[in-house]
Amino acid sequence: MPDTPAAPDTPAAPVLLGNEPGSFPHGVLAERHPAIIRQVRENLPYGPDRRRALDALAANCVEGVIEPLSADAPDRDRWTAWGMDEYTGRSWFDVPWLWSESWFYRRLLDAVGWFGPGPWHGVDPFRPVKLAELRSPRTDEELDALDGLDALSAAAQADALLHGSLWGNRADLGFRLSAPGTTPCADTPPLVADDSARLWSLLPPDAGTGTGGGTLCLVADNAGRELVPDLLLLAHLLATGRVARAVLHVKPYPYYVSDATPADVLDALERLTGAKGRAAGYGRLLWTALTDGRLTVRAHPFSCAPLPYADMPDDLRAEFAAATLTVVKGDLNYRRLVGDRRWPATTAFADVTAYFPGPVAALRTLKSDVITGLDATVETALVAAGDQRWRTAGTHALIQVRD
Ligand SMILES: O=P(O)(O)OC[C@@]1(O)O[C@H](CO)[C@@H](O)[C@@H]1O
C-alpha cells in the first residue's frame, strides 16, 4: 500500500499505532469504538441479524484481527489498494492507527447493513445523534447570534465567521463520547497558532467578482454544529466576493460518527433556510449558489480513505491544485494532512505540507496527539501549564496556512 512520506525533505517521524496501553490511540480503539457500537445499537431498532453483526464487530475490533471484506463488497478493490491485504490477519492495534480507525467505520457500515440489499441499505447509523444536535436550541442560539454581526466592521465579521467555523470543530460527536463536558483551558491562549492574516491575504474582498475569480475548496469535517458555521463562512466568502466559487468536500458515507455526508449538507441547508434574519439570507444565498454552480458538493471516495493526503489520487490532486485555497477542517483531516506521525511539535507546517498541490489552510481544534508548526515558546508554555491534555482535549485550536 502507498506510504508516501508527508514531506520528503523532513525526516519522517514514526507512524502512530494504537498498541501502547494508556495512549490516546489505544483508548480510541479499546474504549471509544465499543462505546460507539453501543450507541448505534441503542439509537436505532436494528433486528437480531444486525445486532449480532454489531456484537461480532465489538468483539473483533478489540480482540480479533483484520478480516478481509466479502468478495462482493462494492469497494473491495479500493480497500485492497488501500492496504487491506497487507493488514489482514493482524491485530487492529498493530496496524497504523489512522488505518484501523477508518477500517472500524467501514466494518460498522457492514454490520448495520449500509451496503446490503435489505431495509437498512443507505440508512445512516449516526443520523439520530446528528439530527438531535442540528435541532438543538444551541444551534438556534448560534444562528440568532449572527444578527449581531451587523454591528461589526467587515474585517471583524470575516474573523467572527472564521472563528465560528474553527471552534465549530469542537462539535464532534465521537469525541464527546470520550471527553464529555470538556471546558476551555484558562492557563494558555486557546489558539496555539494563528495564521489568519495570511489566510485573509489569499482571499482579498472582491477577488472573486466577475468571471475570473478564485475557487475555495473546503474539506469539511463534522455535520451539524460544525457544518452550519462552515456553510455560513462559505456564504460570507461568496457574498463578499472573496471567492467566486466554492467546492465543499464531504464524506461519501457515514464516518467518524458525525462527519458530514451529502445528506447532512441538505439537512444543514434546510436548517439555515428555515431560520430567521441573516442566517436565512445566507441559506438562500447558498441554495442559489448550489443551483447556479457557484457552490458544488463533492463526496470523493478518498475522503474516507485510511491514508494521508500525501497519497491522494491524481484527480483530487488536480482539484486542489486548481483552487486558490483549500481549507482543511478538523482533527482527522489534520492528521491526514500532515501525516499521522509523532512529529516534534516544532516541525515546520510548511515542510510537512510541501507535497500539497496548492495553498492550504488547516482549521482544527486539537483532539489527538499529532501537532506541527508550533513556536518553541508556545510548546514550552503548553507543556509547563500541566499535562499533555492540550493535545487531545479540544480546548485549544489552530489556524495554519501554507501558501
Ligand atoms: O476530525 P474531528 O471530528 O475533528 O475529530 C476526530 C476525532 O475525535 O477522532 C479521532 C479519534 O478517533 C481524533 O482524530 C479526533 O479526536
From TrEMBL:
Gene3D superfamilies: 1.20.930.60, Uncharacterised protein PF01937, DUF89, domain 3. It holds the Pfam family ARMT1-like_dom. It catalyses: beta-D-fructose 1-phosphate + H2O = D-fructose + phosphate; beta-D-fructose 6-phosphate = dihydroxyacetone + D-glyceraldehyde 3-phosphate. Residues 29-375 form the Damage-control phosphatase ARMT1-like metal-binding domain. The keyword Transmembrane does not apply. Signal peptide: none annotated. Keywords: Hydrolase, Manganese, Metal-binding. Its cofactor is Mn(2+). Belongs to the damage-control phosphatase family. Sugar phosphate phosphatase III subfamily. It comes from Streptomyces ziwulingensis. This is Damage-control phosphatase ARMT1 family protein. InterPro entries: ARMT-1-like_metal-bd_sf, ARMT1, ARMT1-like_metal-bd.
